[in-house]
Design brief:
The complex is a heterodimer of chains A (199) and B (325).
Chain A: E1 7-12, H1 16-27, E2 32-37, H2 43-50, E3 54-58, H3 64-68, E4 82-84, H4 91-100, E5 102-107, H5 116-160, H6 164-178, H7 182-193
Parallel strand pairs in A: 1-2, 1-3
Antiparallel strand pairs in A: 3-5, 4-5
Helix pairs in contact in A: 1-5, 4-5, 5-6, 5-7, 6-7
Chain B: E1 4-9, H1 16-23, H2 26-29, E2 33-38, H3 42-50, E3 56-59, H4 61-68, E4 79-83, E5 90-94, H5 107-120, E6 125-128, H6 134-145, E7 155-158, H7 164-170, E8 175-178, H8 182-188, E9 192-197, H9 198-201, E10 209-212, H10 214-219, H11 224-239, H12 244-252, H13 264-269, H14 293-301, H15 307-315
Parallel strand pairs in B: 1-2, 1-3, 6-7, 6-8
Antiparallel strand pairs in B: 3-10, 4-10, 5-8, 5-9
The chains are: A alpha/beta (199), B alpha/beta (325).
């Protein structure tokens, strides 16, 4: 089934958009057979089914630990266990991979393959996605923090019978006094002053 | 204010002291700036500690020791800073409890297991939260006490604790050993019954410890005494039964609002002082130097570590005053 010299790469990513982009990049290399697997199939079953040489895994997959521990498991049923790829001599590559949220597993007991070029492609693509995601998250956080501040102000105005200006000054004063951010003070105020109503 | 300390933890009720210390501003008061990173799995926590994704973590000793020994890549001199919790783990099996069955050590427990296994109709699939977990050690000890072998009589599977309820509900696992509040939640949801726990297998064992890596100790101005002081205050707050409702509410809040999105009822039922024998304990104060001996001995027996590894751990300060509270 497997053509000689070709490397089977299993790409396990819960984000179909990113998985599609990465598999398109990797498929440009004629020596790779790229197989993608989504969240529906447990990672360990996907490895058993596709018998890859290399597994690239989105680190946010909760079932990564199962693959990680395959040698310790009696019921894993894998003919060739896989192990986390670690390059101790290239600390920068490893840190970049974990920061981008991707890691790689190699099949044990087969001739070692050079996984670094693959990992580098994956890192650069993941980092691009991460940047977009974190920009989106920052924007969402700003909105939800603003909502929390508004809610805390309303609650403070109700509780203290005061105006909006005074409510905001109280939040600001408390933030300065405790060296914390206003949104954190707002969240704390909502939490401690809305018992029994929102819960 | 010193450098930001990135602390990794999982969605577990015994993460309470770190969450409480952050929410109550205790870290800030002691001059430490902390960012809590709720990780999807223990592998992510361990790799984060090795590859500069985390500076510290709330973690169980076996995985921390294996990480310190370099089993996930380069050794990084990971050291314990403070013991945070004791006990709290539960072993749960799927289905309704078998009436009148005795799950205590010896032939009675073995007979109950056989009866339950017949009802399950397959080699039971039992989950633990990581291959190098206290939970696997505890499960192995318990099953061995009722004459059941982890290697031969069950199928062991690994999954993060917050996936266990869904897996039990879907029937993809038949039981588990996990930290709070997941055992209690499985019970409250009627998915399974509790057969044993930390209290009956290894009473008062060390569960979560705060570890910091070398980088933090040597390269950055993190004051571990300040971290200890903030955590000790938070532990005392968590131990006070009059705070139990409030803390359970904090843990039940969404992650984006400073909580861990846990079930309030299940968490409340295992808060310190609750009636469960496996209620959590966040005791502060000095621990004995031999608190981790049983784990190291079991890890050795299971072939995870060698005698030389144990010596390395001792040299790194794992069995000395650093384990003091």
């Amino acid at each position: 089934m497997q053509r000689k010299g070709l490397i089977r790469v299993l790409l396990a990513d819960e984000n179909p958009h990113r998985a599609g982009a990465l598999s398109a990049t990797l498929r440009a290399d004629a020596s790779l057979i790229v197989i993608t697997t989504g969240p529906d199939l447990p990672l360990i079953d996907a490895v058993r089914l596709h018998m890859p040489d290399i597994v690239l895994v989105d680190m946010s997959r909760a079932d990564r630990d199962a693959l990680d521990s395959v040698r310790a498991l009696s019921g894993a049923g894998l003919e060739h266990p896989v192990a986390l790829f670690v390059d101790e001599d290239d600390e920068h590559l490893m840190e970049a991979a974990f920061e981008a949220g991707i890691c790689s597993y190699n099949v044990v007991d087969t001739p070692p393959r050079d996984v670094k070029p693959l990992l580098r492609s994956a890192i650069s693509l993941y980092a691009r996605f991460q940047k977009t995601q974190s920009e989106l998250r920052a924007a969402q956080r700003t909105i939800s923090e603003q909502q929390a501040i508004n809610q805390a102000k309303r609650l403070f105005m109700q509780n203290e019978g005061c105006g909006e200006g005074e409510a905001y000054r109280w939040l600001r004063k408390r933030a300065m006094k405790t060296a914390r951010r206003i949104p954190d003070i707002a969240a704390e105020y909502i939490r401690t002053h809305s018992k029994g109503t929102s819960r | 204010m010193s450098h930001l300390l990135r602390v990794g933890l999982l969605r577990l009720a015994d993460s309470a002291p770190v969450v409480v210390a952050r929410n109550a501003g205790l870290f800030e008061r002691h001059g430490v700036s902390v960012e809590i990173i709720a990780s999807p799995s223990w592998a992510n926590v361990a790799d984060g500690l090795v590859w500069n994704g985390l500076d510290a973590a709330l973690i169980f000793p076996p995985l921390a020791m294996m990480t310190a020994l370099g089993r996930r890549g380069k050794g990084n001199g990971l050291k314990p800073v403070q013991t945070v919790s004791f006990g709290g783990n539960m072993i749960v099996l799927r289905g309704a409890p078998l009436l009148g069955n005795d799950w205590s050590a010896g032939p009675a427990g073995q007979q109950s297991f056989r009866t339950w296994r017949t009802r399950i109709g397959r080699a039971p699939r039992l989950a633990v939260v990581h291959a190098y977990s206290t939970h696997l050690l505890i499960l192995t000890r318990y099953l061995s006490s009722i004459g059941v072998s982890v290697r031969d009589d069950i199928e062991l599977t690994i999954m993060p604790p917050d996936r266990i309820i869904d897996a039990l509900s879907a029937g993809s696992i038949d039981g588990f050993c996990a930290g709070p509040p997941w055992g209690e939640e499985a019970f409250l949801k009627g998915l399974g019954f509790i057969v044993a726990g930390s209290s009956s297998i290894c009473p008062e064992h060390v569960e979560k410890i705060l570890v910091m890596n070398d980088r933090t100790h040597n390269g950055m101005p993190i004051d571990s005494d300040a971290v200890r002081a903030a955590l000790s205050e938070a532990q005392a707050m968590c131990m006070d039964p009059s705070n139990a409702d409030d803390i359970a509410h904090q843990l039940a809040a969404p992650v984006a609002e400073g909580g861990l999105a846990l079930s309030f009822d299940a968490t409340r039922a295992v808060m310190p002082g609750a009636s469960s024998p496996d209620a959590m304990v966040f005791r502060t104060g000095r621990q004995k130097n031999d608190a981790l001996d049983w784990m190291v001995s079991d890890m050795h027996n299971l072939g995870w570590i060698s005698t030389d590894d144990a010596i390395t751990l001792e040299r790194l300060g794992w069995f000395t005053r650093e384990m003091a509270g």
